[in-house]
Each structure stands twice: as C-alpha cells, then as structure tokens.
Model the fold of this input.
Amino acid sequence: MHNKEKETKQSVTTIFSNVIYFIRLMFSISPLFVVTDLIWGVIQFLPPRLISVLGMKRVIDIVESGERLERIWGAVIVIAVVLGVSHLLSWLYREFYWNIAREKLSMGLSEKLYSKARSLDLSQYDDPEYYNSFILTIETSADNIQNLLNLVRNYVSSLISFFTIGTVLATIDPLCLVIILAVVLTFLPLSRKVGALQMGRRKDNAALHRRSDYFQRIFYLQEYTKEVRMHGIRPLLVDRYNDAAQAVVDNQRKYWKKIAFFGGVQDFGIQTLGFLFLLLLYLGYCVLVKKSLSAGDFVASFNGAYQIAMSVNFLTVWALSVFSERGKMIEKYREFLSTRPKLKDGADTAPCAEPETIEIKDLSFTYPGNDEATLRDINLTIKPYEKIALVGYNGAGKTTLTNLLLRLYDPTEGSITIGGQDIRDVTRPSHIDRFAAVFQDFQTYACTIGENVAMDKAPDAGRVLQSLEKTTFRKPLPDGVNTELLREFSDSGVMLSGGESQKMAVARAFYKNCPYAILDEPSANLDPIAEYELNRAMLEGAAHKTVIFISHRLSTTVGADRIYVMENGRIVESGTHAELMEQNGTYAYMFRLQAKKYAEGSEEEADEETDA
Amino acid sequence: MRYIKLHEETKVPIFRNVVYAFRLVWKADWRLPVTSLLEEFCNSFLGLFVRNILFLKTLLTVIDSNGDFRQYVRYLLWFLLVSGLLQLGQWYGSYANRASVKLVLQRLNNKLFQKACTLDVSCYEDPEFYDKYQRATTVLSDGYFHLLCIDLAVIIGDFVSFLLVVATVISINPVYLLFMVPAMLVFAVETKKSRAVYRRDFAMTTNNRVKAYIKRTMFLRDYAKDMRTSNIFLVLLQRFETATRANLVILKEYGLPLFLYSTLSSLLSEFIPIVGTYAFAGYQFIQGAMTISGFSVVLTAINSVNGATWALAECFDEISQMALFFSNLRDFFEYEPQITDGELEAGKFESLEFRDVSFTYPGAEQPSLSHVSFTLHRGETLAIVGVNGAGKSTLVKLMMRFYDPTAGEILYNGRSLKDYRLESLRGVFAAVFQDYRNFAVSVNENVMCRDCNEDDKQRARRAIVQSGAWEKISSFEKQGDTVLTREFEEDGAGLSGGENQKVSTARLFAREFEIAVLDEPSSALDPVAEAQMYNHLMEATQNKTVVYISHRLSSAASSDRILVLDGGKVAESGDHRSLLQEGGIYAAMFRKQAAAYRTGKEVASDA
Done:
C-alpha cells in the first residue's frame, strides 16, 4: 500500500515533466504557435466566465443599492465590449491562423520523427520490443500527438479561470473559498483511485484487445480471404475471437463497477454534497440570518462555485488520468527521439569510382539478443569486377552477410575492408552510395516508376528506361517514366505483377552509378524465360561492377566467377562451378538435385534431336 | 503533382441509416441504448435544469421574499435527495454501459464475420468496395454504435431540459425568449459550418492518404532497408511536403467562410442573448418591473439554452456524419454475393471440364483467360505452366469459384459448378497458395484448421513430418501446441518464410480431398527442401488428382499433362515428351531453363 502511494506520487512528477517535455518539443518546432495557442485558450474562456460572476453581481448590487439605476447601462456596455472583442479575436485567430499553423506544426513534427526513424540502426527494428513499443506506437500516434496541445491549452485556461474566480469568491467571503477547498481536498484523493483503476483497465484491455483485434483483422483483410474460404478454419477463428472478446467484456465489468462507484462518490461529494448543500447552506445563512452578504453576492458565489466545481473535476480527475495516459505516450516519444544509433560514422568519404578489392576478415556476427552467431569466421576476398555467388540453405546467413557489407549492422568480430580501408572509417552515406542493392523483400513505392528505379529525386528518364529495358521489363507505361505505381492514392496507378516488380527492382541496380551491386534472389518470382534473360542481362549489364548475388536457383550460379557455399553461418565451400562440382560436396549435391529433372529432359531432347 | 478527386460530396439518407443502425444495436444488446439514455438523461437534466434553474430560482425566491432560513434549509435537503438520485442513475448507467459496449462489438463482429465469409473474393479486389468495407469495419471498432446511443440519449435529455428551461423563462417574462431565439438559430449556422468543415476535410482526403502512406513507409520494418540504402527517403519526403502544401491551400481557402460562420454563431448564441438580456433587464429594473431572482434565472437560463443547443447541434452533426459510415455497413450487410450457392453436394470426383471459358476481371479491359477448354480426369496430374501473367492463378480461382467465368462453363462431374453448394465444392480441393497465410493459433490448429483433440494432434504431426517442418516444430518446447507468431503470445514462434510455407502445406497432408491444387508451393524453399517437399507432395497425392502450377518446369516434366498458357489462351497441351517434340513455347522455356544446368552437367561429366 505504501509503495503504491509512492508510485502514484512519483508519477505525478513524471507526468508533469513529460508534459513540459512535450510543450518544449512543440515549442522547438513552432514557438509562435505554442504561445499564441495558450493565449487563445484564455481569451476564449475567461471573459464569459467572469461576466457570469462579476457582471451579474455588479448589476444586482446596483439594483439592491437602489440609487442611480442608470449605472446599469455602463455595466451593460462593458459586458458587450468585452464579450464582443474576445469572440472576434478568438475566431480571427482560430480560422485564419490556427488551422494552418497546426498543419505546418504537424509536418514539422512528422519530419523530425521520420528523420529520427531513418537514423536508427536496423538492429533496433529487429528488437521486437523496441520496434513494437516505440516505432510502431509512434507510427500509429504521430497524427494525434499534437492534439495533446489542445488538452494543455484547456488545462491552462481552466487553471487561470479557477484562480480568477477563486479570487473573486475570496473577496466576497473568504470562508466560501475555504469551504470549496475543504470539499475538494476531502474528495480529491478518490480521483487517484479512479485514475489507477482506469490505468489498470486500459492496460488489461490493451492486452486483451490485441488478441481480439488480431482475429477480427483476419476477417477484415484481403490477404486472408482465400485461406479462410478454402480450409474451413472459420469456426476455429470465430471461436478464438469470441473467447478474446468475452474476456474484454468481463474485464470492462470488473473495472467499471469500481470506477463508476468511486467516480460517483466523488461527484456526489464535490458537486452535490459540497457545492449544492454545504456551500449553499453557508451562503443562505450569511444572506438570511447573518445578513452579511447581499443577493448579488449570493448569485455570484452560486455561479462561481458551480464553475469551480466543474473545473475541479476537469483539472483533477479527468486531466490527471488523460495526462498520465498521454504522458506514457510522450515518454515513448521522448525515448524515441533520444535514441542514438549505435553505428558510428567514420570520418572519411568513401570513393565512388572504380571497384576495389573487398576483403572480409575473420568476421563473426550475432544478431543482438540472439544466443547463436549467424555468421562465424567468414574470410573472403572479392576482386574488382568479380561476379560472386552466395548459395546455401535458408537461414545459412547469406542475406546477413550482405547486410554487413552494406553496414546495416557492424560485425561482432572481424572487419570488412574495401580497397584496404575499414568500412567503419568512412561516412555511412558515402559507403552506401557505392552500392546498388536489390533485396529479397524489395518494395515497390507509390511513386513514379522513374523514382522507383532511381530511388532518388529527379530521375534521369533516359537511364531509367535503359535500365528497365536491360531487365526485359515489358509492361506498357502510359506516362513513361512518370507513370505512377500502385493504387495507393492514384486510381490510375499501374499495378505490377510479381515478376515485373522484380525486374523493376533489378533495374535499380542497373540505374545506380556505383562500383558494387548486391542482388538478393533476383529471379525468384520470374518465369524461366525471364529468368534466363535477366541472368544474361545481369552479367552483361554489370560487367563494369563487382556483383554479389544470392540465389537458390543454382542455374544462375554457373556463370559466376566464384561461388561461396554457406552453411550455418560458415563458408563451407568456395570455388568456380567446375571446381565445386569436382569437390562433390554440398554444392554438387544441391546442383544435381535441381538439375536432375532437367537432365532427364535434356536427354529426351537429345533423343529428339537425333531422331530429327 | 496530380491528385485525383475521389468523388463529389456523397449524400446519404440520414434518418434511414440511423434507424437501421439503431435496430442493429438494439438487437445486439438493448441495454446499450437504454443505459446510455439513463446516464445522459440524468446528466443533462441535473446539469441543465435542476441545478442551474430550479434550485437557483427556488432559493432566490426564498431570499427575495425575505423568507425564513428553515424553509431555505428544507429546500436544500430536498435538492440533496433529488440530486443524489440523479447521480445514482448516472452512475448505474455508466457502469452498465461500458460492458454493454464491448458486448455489442462482439455480437456485431460475429455478424460481420459471417457476412464477410460469403463475400465474393472479387469484392476484396475491387478497391471501391474494399474501401467501403474497411470503413464499415471502422464503424464497429471505433465505437460508432456507442456514440450513436449517447447522441440519441443526449438529444432526448437535452430536449426535455430545454423545454423546461424555456417554460421557466416564459413564467418570468416571455419577452426574454426573444433574446434566446437567436441561440436556437445557431443550430442552423453550425450545421452549415460543419458541412463546410466536412467539405474541407474531404478535399484533403487524398493528401492525407498520401501522408498516411508515407508515414507507414517511414516507420515500418519492410521499408527500413531501402530508407537506409537509397534516397527514396527524399523522394517520399518531397511528396509528403507537396501533400501538406496542398492541404495548406485548402485550409486557407476555407478560412474566410469558417470565420464568418463561427463569428455569426457566437453572435447569435452568446452576444445577442447575454447583452440583450442585460439591457432589457436593466430597462425593467429601472421601470421597477424586475426581481433579482428573475434576472438571475433568466441569465442562467441563457447558459442552459446555449449548452443544450450546442450539444444538440453537435449530436446532429455527429449523427449525420455517422450516417455515411452506417450506410457503408448497411451496404455491406445487404450485399448480395454474386457467387451463390447451388444445391448439389459435390460427390466423388470424376471429371472437371473447362468448356470454352473466358474471364475478364471486373474493371479490366483485357480478358485474363479466353476460350480455355480442357478436361481433368480422376487420378490425373495436370501441370499448368506459362510466363507470369499468363492466367495460371486466375484459372485456379475459377476452379474454386472465387469468380465465375465471364463466358463459357466449368463442369464438375458433368454439372455446372454453380449447381453445387459452395462449401461442399470448395471442400473438394486441397489448396496450397502462392500467397499462403498462417494464423496466430497453434501449429496443430493451423494444420488441422480446427480445435485439436489428441487424435488430431497425431494427424497434424504426421502431416508436419511430411511437409518437412517437423524438425523445426519439434525443437519448440510445446511442439505442435506452439502458437505461431509473437502477435500476442510471448512464447509464440516466429517461423522463417520457408518454414511457414511448410506448415501451410501440411494442411494438404492432413486432410481428405479430391483434387490437390498446388500453386507454387516451393517458391520460398531452398533446393534441398524443395526437392524433399516435392517428393512428399508426390507421395501424398499419389493416385490423386493434382493440379500443379509452377514456372519451374522441372516439376511439370513428370505430369500426365501439361497445359501451357500464353496470354490467357491455352497455347499448348500434352505431355512433356509430346510438347518437346512440338517445339513450341514449352520446349523453348524448358531448353532455356535446362541450359544452365546442362552446362553444369557437362562440366561435371568432363571432370
């Protein structure tokens, strides 16, 4: 119990520090917006509230004093001016400045987050905990986080109203304020209880919802349609959904019983018992028995107390729970924005000219969080202009090796040098610049095909088309290189089939002017003719580059200058196709397995040829 | 940059859709609307009328008439009771409400799942329908039904309170109503304003879609490598900025009209009523025709009237916006699938005949298949080969009746596919898809596609062994009971592409079927695993009818018949040998693919 108390107390300071961090973050993007936004809140809310307390009191006092009733007109004019000016100002601000500035603020914030995301190490994406709790959370909340500013604004303006009206009440009768504060302080601790319950409920719900949302998604999404229709798995999935959904319902019942009770007691205590009974009892006593207060004082106190009662609820229960919930979100931003990449930039600029020798020395690599090394004691030398093939089973470490070459990760042990220089000694952008990389899980972007091939702004149309041609890409392009791909947001966007997108991806390697190319499974989605043509084109088109390619189809590896066979993170065989066949090891086994069917075919073909 | 306008402002009948939605929610759980009404009614009745008007008026009357303090206290005690009761109602409503919300979600989701499974696959591929469908689903997950119930409850509660407030004002002096009438007009202004906001937001839809897409690419793992190894980041950032700038233009355009609406509405709802009341009351005070209690109550009444009209305007606005979503849901529930059930049970397989079948995807110009005819007999192995986009997968989709042919007919045992019950027809096929999916349930359940008893687990295990995934699966502590993916299970298993494919292929080994359809089942596998898988598949499908789709011709060679598709037409048909003799497309493809291996073989035999 004691511990718990401490924990909540601590969290109030963290909530505060998080909110301050948030305001500073927004301030750093647009100082003007933050400042004017807060002022706007005050202009918008304070005048009407003050009028309902002070304006009324003034008029009633004039009437009660019974002399010079004409002074009422003066009060009416002041009220009209204050009200009119505050409305006009706040709408001018809101409709001509705020809407626009907010969109700009949103852009500024997004760009800050995007740049940060890009600067992170790939290993941070591999870490499921970091990925889920930071990157994905920020992705889903980036559009809404700035709405927190609305909350802050409302909070600040409510706080100012609270103090202003409190002061007014204190001048009428200090005891009024004492009663108000006593009531609030008596029942306020309940809000902590409610806050803690809400937090628990949300936490439990989030975990339970993850499960029900998943099963729900299966029915919502396109990619599962075929499986759900063909395998009769529907009842199982529906059952699972219902189990998860029922758990959510039960959880709601469990928590809301308590939340509604404590919340109800608090509401009753502050609003009904405190303000509607105790305070009015005292006011009535002052007016009717003690005759120390006027009717004007009574009305002003009644209205003022009511407003304070409303804002107490907002300032404590509501805002605290929302702030603490959002505070956690802010904390994620805080941590995300302060994450520093572990890969350090070198000082030199890597040359992007003719290929040089790539040397990998005693290299081992273990993915962060893994026990087993993915690569062990890799040693290999790639001479300029060589065409290197990496082959091996799934999970042998081929893709990982190329990831290290691109310096998406740093080796756990050993080093990679290019032209004698450790790749850690050069800047990462200049290092990346000398590689063209086509990944196994390449992506197509909802941009123009030109941009998709160049992977850069302002693509050179001629070279884009040339590169596509080399890959035998044949899809007609209605707008040439400016043809938009995907239907993401352009209904006329061109959809590429699996094979065509793969060719488009390979074209990236042709387009980029650089000495080295890495091609991961460049022909997996292609039909035999396209594969054959692509292989030939690759070897021809990349004649002036060092090429490292990974392939399952060993037919592609035959023409390689050197083949490295990987198994369990080690290089187990290396040599030319002929040498490896002679060694009669893993490679030869794999090759024969694949070639068998074709061998039978070619015999028959041979028969046919002799027949003819 | 050009952005395409989606469509002009859509008009949906609000009342009809709201009634429809209300019926749905009432049937799902009537307690939701009832408890919402209880909660909101107590809330607004207490806040708008009882506390601010009734209490104040009563107490001020006592004070005004110099009444005695005991009378005053008696009133206070009554108020304590009334207010307490109303809060109790509010408390109970909010408690009962929150569980009911989730129950409604669950029940409606069940209804939705059922409907979703009868939807034609083509619906999912039609962007417009899919878009609608996605929006229909957000109706459920974003709590629109709860919002609807609350809004309706607020409308009722506020309206009743509103009438009572107006009655009180009339009892003081009907003239004051004059100043409150403008406050009621706010309703019309706010409706106009919200329409303008809606139009503005609608104009920004496409830009916001661009922004959302780019955000996705910036954060998701799938794109992370490209972001780091190329300048696509800059391309996307540029688009992001362009979309934002386009939004700014739209926002600026709407600045003036929104300012006018907003100011007008402030004028009507606050300025005129408040200043007018003060002025008229001042006049009456001077005339000696006004009491302090009357004055205070009228001024407070302005707040209540204001509060009520604003809330009403907001509710109506929300409801009219929701109507669009509800109409999406309604369209979805009322959608009649094109692929309808027949009556026959699909019995033992004898033959499947494509008779002059042509097919064009909805919205496409070019047919994907034209005049395809062939017959598949019991026990045959049929390989369908062809370059990408030749129509191989489409052919399979027609076979399983994901689509119906545009022209021609497909016959199962001599009767049109349309004559059979869908579920029974699809049960005939055991399919392994190119874009296979596994689910976040246990490995066994993924294989058996149902809750597994011990017997099922044994069968699942055998199937997993056959598909070649047992080595991996058995390495998990819970073996076949391990849940796939770490979606929500801490100890869930993440499988590699190849292993996932093996698990989904195991489904085929685990069940009875008439025809096996294998759509590139080995694309994610390495050569050795591919060969093993192939052998197991051949074993499992021995004496069975098999349709095999692949662009790896090695597997086609041993089929009874090979169908070569080219541009949606059957270009060649025959067995491996006869096709090679024909010297057509197949022969060319085969030679090219074999060529590389042949050089290898020569090298090998040279050695």
The two ends of chain A are 95 Å apart (CA to CA). The CA atoms of residues 19 and 612 of chain A lie 85 Å apart.
